[in-house]
Structures are given as structure tokens and as C-alpha cells.
Specification:
Length: about 325
């Protein structure tokens, strides 16, 4: 009987993009495998065009309805890459051979509370995800992340201002928490020294900040925050010459396209294992962080405001080095 594999990852954008090597390798290296994914409805667009998936199951608020539908599929294997209460309910209901992703909560707690960063394994989360396929004797194909943009969401650059139609930098200004976002005044400080066209990217929640930043600058900065959906934003990332980004979902989308990426790290640290994953082009990823701050990391997720009230981890980012990276030839 050919394996029929269910992969669970409910959220969010970056985490789902980081599961794509598991999806691809299961489909390509497990003979005859049928691969399904269950994810939240709001994140369905991230995987809707993924050609390695045979089917995507969408979770709304009613978990029982989803479980009923999953039972009807008669899966042979279950891969849990979320490992929370909801995913455990699915595992209990389906009663299948299961491999679950280990979250390293203890190691991260030690890193946050006692700064014992050395306790964290020196392994990217993608490789930890792939361990869940160990029984199939698969190998990491080193092809990195995938992101498939539906044709309907591919942005024609003629829709951008004429100043941006022949190339631009993409700057992802958003983030899930304030302490993971470079302050707007720091962004403005850098952009005032850059003459290249720049597109600001973020969701509807970043629209106000994008308008604030663009309003202080000239026509070389186009504010796209909240004006494009996730796949359209991914299309703009794909067509950018370089990408600057906070530790957020579009950073991983940029990695999927192997874009030269400068990532800013505030309360989180790359040692958590979720830095840009580009195994074929690791030189294209540049990490920007303030080293040797005693208060970092202060959280494995983030806060609405700096618990120390100084926000040095972002405010002390060296603007000169950012400008230097932007100016460097590809």
C-alpha cells in the first residue's frame, strides 16, 4: 500500500514556508506517496499553488469537522510539525503511526532566562522538521525552501510607479511583534541615504507605519504595505534585487527565492534555528544584530514593547553597515 501522508502545520506564514522541504521530499523520495497538509484557512494562500501537495485541508474554527474529513481520507502516516493541543487532538482521533516535531521549549527557556544559548542545537529547524521523515530513509536534497505563486497573483511591475519598474529593493517593515521590528525612525535614517528605488512591504497592520515612513521620504520609496495580498507580496519579493527584512514570514519567502537578504534580529536570535535557509547559497544571507547584549534573547516570540524599555537590540543596529550592504554589488 502506497503511503498516504498527512502533514500538520496550522500557522504561520514563515513556519509554513519552512515546512516545504518536508512536503517536497516526502512527495519526491517516498515512492508512490500521496501528501496532504492541514493548515488554517487564513494561511491557505501560502500553499494553494504548491505542486507537491495532493490536497490541502483547511481548518476553520470547527476542529471536529476537520477531524471527520481527515478520518475519511484513511491516511497511513501522520507528520506533526506543529505539536500543540489541536494537533494532538487530531493525532488522538486518527490513531496513526506518528512522528512529531520537538519544539525545544526547555532549551529555548534556558536561552531566554539564563542566556544559555550553547544549549541550543546547532541545526536549522528545516533539518529538525526533516527528522520526522526518518523512517522513510529520505535525504535532504539541499534544494531549500519552496514558494509557488499562483498566476493570478503574479504582479506586473508596470503596476508600480515608473521609478520602480526597472528594479528595486524590497524592505519588509512588518513583524509579528514590535520587538522583532526595526523602528521606523531607523528605517527612515537608512532610506534617506539610499538613492535606489525601494518598495516597503507588510500587511494591513503595517499600513500606518508604511505611510509614516514613506511620507518622510521622496518618490524613490513606494509604500506597498496592505496594498497586496501575501502571494502578491511574495511576487514583489521575487522580483526585487535585494531584500531587507525583520525576522518575519516574508524573510523566509525571500529565502525560498534565494534572494540576497539582510535580516534584522531584535529580541530573537538566529540560534533558535529559524534564520534564512538557503543551503545552495548561504552567502546570500546576511545577519544584522547587536551582539553581546546581556538581555538578548528576551523572548522566543516577542513583545509589544521592550521589557527593558531601551530597545537597544534594534535601536543600536548600525545604519552605516546597512547602507554598505545595500550599496555592495551582487
Amino acid at each position: 500500500m502506497a503511503p498516504k501522508i498527512l502533514i500538520i502545520r496550522f500557522s504561520s506564514i514563515g513556519d509554513i514556508v519552512l515546512t516545504t522541504p518536508v512536503i517536497r521530499i516526502a512527495k519526491q523520495q517516498v515512492e508512490g506517496a500521496e501528501v496532504h497538509l492541514v493548515t488554517k484557512k487564513v494561511f491557505y494562500p501560502v500553499v494553494e499553488a504548491n505542486s507537491y501537495l495532493d490536497k490541502v485541508h483547511v481548518l476553520n474554527d470547527d476542529l471536529n469537522t476537520v477531524i471527520k474529513a481527515l478520518k475519511e481520507e484513511r491516511f497511513t502516516h501522520l507528520i506533526d510539525l506543529h505539536n500543540n493541543l489541536r494537533s494532538r487532538k487530531i493525532k488522538k482521533a486518527l490513531k496513526l503511526p506518528t512522528k512529531s516535531f520537538t519544539k525545544l521549549n526547555i532549551e529555548k527557556w534556558l536561552a531566554v532566562n539564563f542566556k544559555q544559548i550553547h544549549k541550543l542545537p546547532n541545526i536549522h529547524i528545516v533539518d529538525r522538521y526533516l527528522e520526522t521523515l526518518s523512517e522513510f530513509n529520505v535525504k535532504n536534497d539541499q534544494k531549500g525552501l519552496d514558494y509557488f505563486i499562483p498566476e493570478k497573483d503574479r504582479v506586473d511591475l508596470k503596476k508600480l510607479p515608473q521609478t520602480h519598474q526597472n528594479g528595486y529593493l524590497a524592505w519588509v517593515i512588518g513583524g509579528s511583534y514590535t520587538t522583532k521590528m526595526l523602528p521606523s525612525d531607523k528605517v527612515v535614517e537608512v532610506l534617506r541615504r539610499i538613492e535606489k528605488p525601494v518598495v516597503l512591504l507588510g500587511g494591513p497592520e503595517d499600513a500606518e507605519n508604511g505611510k509614516l515612513i514613506a511620507g518622510k521620504l521622496g518618490s524613490n520609496v513606494f509604500d506597498a504595505c496592505g496594498k497586496f495580498n501575501i502571494n502578491q507580496s511574495a511576487s514583489l519579493v521575487k522580483q526585487a534585487s535585494k531584500v531587507l527584512s525583520n525576522d518575519t514570514g516574508l524573510m523566509h519567502v525571500a529565502a525560498a527565492f534565494n534572494k540576497p537578504t539582510l535580516s534584522f534580529w531584535g529580541n530573537t536570535i538566529p540560534e533558535f534555528g529559524m534564520y534564512p535557509y538557503m543551503p545552495q547559497h548561504p552567502e546570500r544571507s546576511t545577519i544584522m544584530q547587536v551582539a553581546d547584549l546581556r538581555c538578548r534573547p528576551c523572548s522566543k516570540l516577542g513583545y509589544k514593547k521592550c521589557p527593558k524599555k531601551h530597545f537597544y537590540c534594534m535601536k543600536l543596529i548600525d545604519a552605516d553597515k546597512v547602507v554598505e550592504w545595500v550599496s555592495a554589488k551582487l
